[in-house]
Task: structure prediction
Amino acid sequence: MCGAQAGGPDPSTAKFGETTIQGNVTKDGEPVTGYVRLLDATGEFTAEVPTSATGQFRFYAAEGTWTVRALVPGGTAERKVVAEQGGLADVAIAV
Result:
């Protein structure tokens, strides 16, 4: 069992200037549990977190272009995200 916190890191652990990339994953309009991966601009794996019971996830990252990929039972989907320093990127992923 991994030590990852469902939904992603605790907001109180964010460092000054980091971007928050967060959102939720749904399938057929309902929240779904699974995993969400964060890939850098070249497609390289950077991080992975399990979703919460309500399909929520959160990452802290540097500014730049990222891909957020949801991996849930029965499907995958991804979204491109452009993160600005110190900003918040809210991402909805429907599988």
Notes: Residues 33 and 50 are 7 Å apart (CA to CA). Strands lie at 19-27, 30-31, 35-39, 45-50, 56-61, 64-72, 75-83, 88-94.
